[in-house]
Amino acid sequence: PPDDQRWQAHFEDAAIRQVFLHLQQHGAITEQELTQMLGSPRQVRRFARDFEGYVHQVPFAVRIESTSSGKRYVRQH
């Protein structure tokens, strides 16, 4: 089922798990919010680099939108 929470165990890094929990609950996250959650722009770049691997571990699709203020990660229904 889509609300199955077992996928969370796939993420050793609690901050990355929180990002995907945020996406699941709120539907989107901006680069600014990512910086606050992950702690630094460097961690945001690392997240973007590893994004494809992360998204295969969650039970929902996520697309990346480019906006005037940066990237925005959006959960797809």
Characterise this structure.
The protein is α+β, with helices and mostly antiparallel strands. It contains three helices and three strands. It has a three-stranded antiparallel beta sheet with strand order 1-3-2. Strand 2 and strand 3 form a beta hairpin.
First-last Cα distance: 14 Å
What is the overall shape?
globular
Main sheet overview: 3 strands, antiparallel
Total number of helices:
3
Lateral arrangement of strands in the main beta sheet: 1-3-2
| Element-level helix/strand string | HEHHEE
Decide which structural class fits the backbone: alpha+beta
- How many β-strands, per DSSP? 3
Mean pLDDT, to the nearest integer, reads: 92
Measured on Cα atoms, how large is the radius of gyration? Answer: 12 Å
Tell me the β content.
15-25%
Portion in helices: 40-55%
Poorly predicted residue ranges: none
